[in-house]
Specification:
heterodimer; A: mainly beta; seven-stranded mixed sheet; four-stranded antiparallel sheet; 0% helix; B: 108 residues
């Protein structure tokens, strides 16, 4: 059964950094890419970044200077780090699997809530 | 950036009604790379329709999608209570990947 599960700190102080983890099961990171997408409360979806099966990455240029993505294939984990958080970074952060043969997000995690507040 | 504009933002329908929502792109999108996701309240999005008109696994046949270029639509032939959700279109023709702002479907 394909699953993705996000985990994170929940609360982050303004100007601090965020580290969240996506732990996958039922498939291999050596075969699939994984994306990060976020959704502020009551708002729409924003794509952040993808890490491909070969470890290469593609970032949303609007956030590239603040984002870093990496993975550990052996642990089936993908890591997202974001620097200099502000209140408008408060959102649900989702990881999602890239479709094997086509360009869509075929399976999503349940998300992890990140609140930026002092 | 390819901006996707969805309309209406909110719609209300009675069970059995036919509904159509639209997604317009600021730049042309290949029909192979225009997708729809369903998100119910408190849940994560689910792939619903991919490549304009292909239903994802488990999606009822009352859903359909169509379009080309800069104009796409999602139609429900006969709305049911379980269809209450927000529907997002998404393009994968170019980076950054973008989503529409969503159409919230309410059932009367």
């Amino acid at each position: 059964q394909v699953q993705l599960k996000e985990s994170g700190p929940g609360l982050v102080a303004p100007s601090q950094s965020l580290s969240i983890t996506c732990t996958i099961s039922g498939f291999s990171l050596t075969s699939y890419g994984v994306h990060w997408v976020r959704q502020p409360p009551g708002k729409g979806l924003e794509w952040l970044v993808v890490i491909w099966s070969d470890g290469s990455t593609t970032y949303n240029s609007a956030l590239k200077s603040r984002l870093s993505i990496s993975k550990d294939n052996s642990k089936s984990q993908v890591f997202l780090k974001m620097n200099s958080l502000q209140t408008d970074d408060t959102a649900m952060y989702y990881c999602a699997r890239h479709g094997l043969h086509d360009r869509y997000f075929d399976v999503w995690g349940a998300g992890t809530t990140v609140t930026v507040s002092s | 950036e390819n901006v996707l504009t969805q309309s209406p933002a909110i719609m209300s329908a009675s069970p059995g009604e036919k509904v159509t929502m639209t997604c317009r792109a600021s730049s042309s999108v290949s029909s192979s790379y225009l997708h729809w996701y369903q998100q119910k309240s408190g849940a994560s999005p689910k792939l619903w329709i991919y490549s304009t008109s292909n239903l994802a696994s488990g999606v009822p046949a009352r859903f359909s999608g169509s379009g080309s270029g800069t104009s796409y639509s999602l139609t429900i032939s006969s709305v049911e209570a379980e269809d209450a959700a927000t529907y997002y279109c998404q393009q994968y023709s170019g980076y950054p990947l973008t989503f529409g702002s969503g159409t919230k479907l309410e059932i009367k």
